[in-house]
Amino acid sequence: MLIRLLLASALLASWAAPARAISLSARTDRLIDRLEQLGVVIDRLERCGPGAERAAYNMGVNRLCLSQGLRDQPGLQLDVLTHEAIHVVQDCLDGLETPSSSTISLMLQAQGGFSPAQVDRFLTHHLDRSTAAHVLTVTQSLGPLQRQREVEAYALQSQAGMVESLLARHC
Ligand SMILES: [Ca+2]
Question: What global pTM score does this model have?
Answer without folding.
Answer: 0.87
